[in-house]
Design brief:
With 229 residues, the chain is α+β, with helices and mostly antiparallel strands. The protein is 44% helix and 25% strand. It has 9 helices and 12 strands. The chain has a 4-stranded antiparallel beta sheet with strand order 1-8-3-6. It has a 4-stranded antiparallel beta sheet with strand order 2-7-4-5. A 4-stranded antiparallel beta sheet has the order 9-10-12-11. Helix 6 packs across helix 7. It starts with a helix and ends with a helix. GO terms for molecular function: DNA-binding transcription factor activity.
Amino acid sequence: MQTEVFSELFPLLAAANPETLDWLLSVATEHEYPSDRAVLMEDAWGNAVYFVVSGWVKVRRHSGTGENVSTLAILGRGDFFGEMAILDESPRSTDVIALSNVRLMSISAQRFIQTLFKDPQLHHRMLQLMVKRLRQTNIRFQLRNQPPAIKLVNTLVSLAENYGQESRNSTDIFNIPPKDFSDVADISVEDTTKILEKLDSKGWIKINPSQQVIHLINLKQLMSLIGRK
């Protein structure tokens, strides 16, 4: 991967100087995982930061000693994960599972932390993106008493803004399983299925199961529904 492509693909690296980018590329390791494969396991010590080159992953948390598992976040192309465990030097509190075939690049904890100290711009950019994630979590918390449709549409819009791929007539995201959608939106699976079907019938989205894609045909209308311009 060329340095320019590396920088453009990952917002975290947009502010890094060329020397930093060259160094990170030289020490990065590439990985490929099929869908449903565990990428990182809960309670494993953090030893690397991972960058999503292509595909989609979900971040999960296990509750109690049973099989109660909830999806906390969906991440796509251009995002990263694993940074929390290396910054506070503690075991991971979540695991990461591939939703689709996924390509990743990893950088070891030691080398990534060294790079943060050497490049203040990269350090600052990482703090900005972590604050952005916190704000998105706060928005979800503020929506906790809103109708299920508002919660789900907010999730759709957020995924489109962060990871959507522009096509001729729509913004496209991965066809995320209803259970994962419901966990992230904090609504029931039944409500998730009904709302997606209604949005599809209105022509605002188009679900394409064969290609595992949701086409957001009327993103402006979806944003208007949740009070966004």
